[in-house]
Structure formats: C-alpha cells, structure tokens
Amino acid sequence: MAQVLEFKLPDLGEGLTGAEIVRWLVEVGEVVAVDQPVVEVETAKAMVDVPCPYEGVVTARFGEEGAEVPVGAPLITVAVGGPADDDGRPAGEQSSATDGSRTDGSRTDGSRAEDSRAQGPRSEGSGNVLVGYGTSEAPARRRRVRPGQPGQPVPSAPATPTEPATPTVNGRAAAGQAAAARQVRTAGAVDGPVPVISPLVRRLARQNGLDLREMAGSGPEGLILRADVEYALRAAGTQAGKGRTPTTEPHPRVPQTQTQTQTQAQAQAPPQAHAPIVGAPAAPETIRIPLKGIRGVMADKLSRSRTEIPDATCWVDADATELMRARDAMRRFAEERPRSPAAGGAKISVLALLARICTAALARFPELNSSVDMAAREVVRHPAVHLGFAAQTERGLVVPVVRDAHTRNAESLTAEFARLTEAARTGTLTPADLTGGTFTLNNYGVFGVDGSTPIINHPEAAMLGVGRIVPRPWVHEGELAVRQVVQLSLTFDHRVCDGGVAGGFLRYVADCVEQPAVLLRTL
Q1: Is 0.85 topped by the overall pTM?
Q2: Cα–Cα nearest to 76, from 32, 43, 45
Q3: Residues 251, 274, 382, 494: which is the catalytic one?
C-alpha cells in the first residue's frame, strides 16, 4: 500500500521564521524524485528552491503563490510506494531464480543485504545540504546491473501478458505492433498518475496543448521523455496538413530498453535549448551596460561609501515661506531699483541661499566638515568648506565642488553654481572641479520628491538633502494656514559625531530656513 507522507517547510536557517511562495515547481499528480525542488520561496535573505526528501507522487499542495508560509507548515503531501504483487513485492520487481536481481536491474533484499555486509553499515538520508533540513549523508542508492558486465544477466524491460516484446529494425518498431503496444500503454496510463518525471516535459506539453495521458512514453515502464513530446509535436504538425489525427507514437530513435540510470541522468540534466515554436514571440534579449567612465567611478565611490561608512539619517519639516519671500523681495528690489548699489546682478537661486545657510551651520558644527582616516585612526577636520552639490547629467551623476564656499556670499554662490552646472551638462568639468569636497548639498527636490536617505559622498562625513518646496497645511502662529513646506534630511557618518551634533546642525538649518533673519547675527 502507498504511504502518504507530509513534507513541511524546513528551517531555512539564520533565524528565519517563514517564507513566501513564489512559484510551484510541481503539479498535483506529478512524480517527484528525492531532492527534487518542488517550490521556489522567497525569504528575507534570498530566493530558495526547496527540495523534497521523498520520492513518489504529489497528492496535494498547500498554499497559493504569493502566500506566506511559516516554518513547519505543510507544503505538499507525497504518496510513497506502490501496489504490491502476490509475493509482497512492488509491482515490476520480480526476483530472479539465479542471482537475486530484479527484472528492472536492481538487487533483491538478499543481495542488498550481502552488499550491506560487505560495505559496512550505512546511514540513510536524503543527502540534502539545505541549512537546517535533511541529512548530511548521501542517499543510499540501489545497485544496478549494467549491460555487458561479465557474469551478470542483462536487464530487460518489465514484461506484461498483454504487451509482448516488439521486434525492431534499426531502432524502429513495426507499425502494426507499435500501434497495438501504444493502445495497451495508453489504456493503462489513464487511471494512474502521468508517467513524467521532468517538469520541463510537462511545461512543454502544456504550452502546446498536448494531453500527456494520451501519450505513450519510450522510457522504462512507459516513462514519457522530452523526445517523445517533441516527436509528437512534429508528427502533429505534419499530419495536420494531411487532415489526419496526430499520433502519439514514441520517438523512434529512443530505444525501448533505456535504463533507469540514463533516464534519471536525463531528468537531472540542465534544460537544453530547442527549436522555437513557429509563431511564438521572440524572447527579449538581456541588455548588459558596462560600468565605465563617470558611471563606473560613481559606482566604485558609492559602493565604497556603503561598505566603509556607518551612516545614519535624521530629518525635519520646515516652513520655507519666509525664505521664499526673502528671495522674492531681493528679486523685486533688483527689478524696481536696478541702479541701486544694493540691487546686485543675477537673480539669487534657492540653492545658493541653502548653501549659505549650510556654511553658517558648519561654522557652528565643524564636526560635520571632516573625514575619517582609518589608517591613522583619526578624524580629520577641514578648516575650509569645499561644498559639493549633486548634478544629474546625461552621462550620469556628478558632484561638482564649489571651492571655499564659506567665503562666498549668495551672489557669488549663485554664479559659481551656474558655471559648474553648465560645465557638467556640456561635459567640460575638470578633475579639480570634481574632487576635494568636504560637504555635499543634495537638492533632490528638483525631481519632484520630498525625502531621501542619500549615500554619503566618500570620504566626506555628511550630506544635507533638500526636498521639494510645496504648499501644505501648517500651523502658523496658532492657526492653520497654507505654507511653503520643505523636508530637510541629514545623512552623517556616525564615527565623526553623535546624534546630538547632527540634530543640532539640522535644527539650525531649519531655523534659518524658517527665519532667514537669524543669519544677520553671524554676518
């Protein structure tokens, strides 16, 4: 009698308590082998193919694709074993009167016992190497009698009263006898599970509308191979033009006496490319883009930053209404009184005003204008502020540097930002324009986003991020009003300072954004 065993989700290791079912690799009624992957799951660490420790027929699956399954919950049930004959042995395993070998080439219990006594005790196990699952021993396999070995009979295909051996000529069966054998095998295949091991064979048949239960396999005991399905597809395509019913005759080039070992090797071999089906859409090609030039440099720099710098991020919302009013007031004054010495030149940019606030904040919190020398195990504080700003170009992300930003006013900062931005767009930045920064200002609000946790520009120690400035509800002077609100974020190297310094810096920047007159105290 077949025994139904339940396979539960194993412990996948590293403290994981569950997984999500991504894709089932087997269907109900499919024959599975020991250690064959049956389901693909996704954990918090990676994607994992979970193998089954049992060999048999899948009788049930638990959980749909996308469902969360805890460790220890059942995944599938497998019917192990099969009906027994009159002697108590599984069907098709008749003993030999001479050497104790079965007709399928495996050894009987007596011969296996002798082998066991000769080889010593062996522990059973699936041989699975998944963490926390299975055993570490390799699976105990039955000995096979290979054809041509001296002193041993050549194994033959299982004989049945209704299916005599079919004579062949150059590997091809006679037409009448092959048809009779096909009818017998087809009639017997309808009641039991489909004799298919490889999921690839099932998928190929399903994609082309073939019913595997109506096919006869050329493998041992009627096992349907990939060659059988491909041959049936070719036969169906040929006879469809002649108006005849497609045949399910086994592939003529596959010998009927193929051994079980060869079948398992074929099932476990990686899938091979086959001729595309006529009319099927071509699969899109994978595109590989080399990391070179600016993209390659930035990739190396950002990877190094993520690897070496233990960064942290804090953020705050600020009312930028007064800052925007101050900028508009400077613009109106220049338009109304262009001859005034205080009118200035070009329009002041918001980025220049934020840069001026940054330099004032770094004067109060110099810890953030520094870098870390791990070789000397020292924090290096820089006396000058060389302010970098992120600029997105067609060639990739670049960070030009404004030299001695702490000595510049808003007009000078606006002019320098404009010059470096134009040079970045035209690709004329020099190496000196892209190196030597001590602090970075990242205005990602130009992309229409509010917040971010940027990667620090190595070897700097901090980066100030500025989101978009948009109208939002805000409590102003005790009343709800619509104000211009911006989100500010500071990502900093936790080796150079603690959260108190980072919070103080960010709070000072927010206060200056909300009340620009605060800067008058430090002019």
Answers
A1: no
A2: 32
A3: 494
